[in-house]
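Mods, move this if it's the wrong board.
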Amino acid sequence: MDNVAFESGSGLSHPYFPVALNLPHYAANSLNMYQLLGAFGLGVVAVIGMGSILLARRPHLSWLARITFLWFLISGCIHFFFEGYFVYNHATLAGDQTLFGQLWKEYSLSDSRYLSSDSFVLLMELVTAVFDGPLCFLTAYAILNDSPLRYITQLMVSLAQIYGDVLYYTTTLFEGSPHCTPHPYYFWFYFVTLNAIWIIVPTLLGCQACQQLYRAVARTQALDGKKKVQ
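Not the wrong board. Structure tokens:
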């Protein structure tokens, strides 16, 4: 998909909105959209492959636990490595020609705040990389080892993901999406669909965690009640 370049306030052309956005260090991607999405997809497949090797050593886990493990493993990698890369390199991202840099420039067609070091986006991604990422890995580890910590961390990270995504959505929509290229693909696929995954799945996993924690507390209270009667 070809992007039309607009002249920014600095006189340099870039395909981002608003048109007056000043990106003096901008450099066009050397990889096209299909190459970038393909590379990202291969990365996800590689993580699934590594996760499947670990799961092969845990034949007792249910299919739901296996899928949940892979979800947290993939989420952890995205939060910690990919989003962490943005946090570390945000100031020079517009001219970054690494794979992660070009992926971020492609995604920024739906939200140019990622190229302008927007304070809200930067702080949100910092929390996501530092808090959500490691917590996802901890939850994946807990699932793999049947740890009672699993549903506690699952609920914590799911709530954090939902909270961050809701704030991300609402700040953009409240402003009228001025940072998004006005092509439906970038708004509906990149901005809406891709981010909606981290609302829908965490909501389901958060509900599951609440259900399991409720049952555990109910069983404990029932046992305590029996002991008092005796």
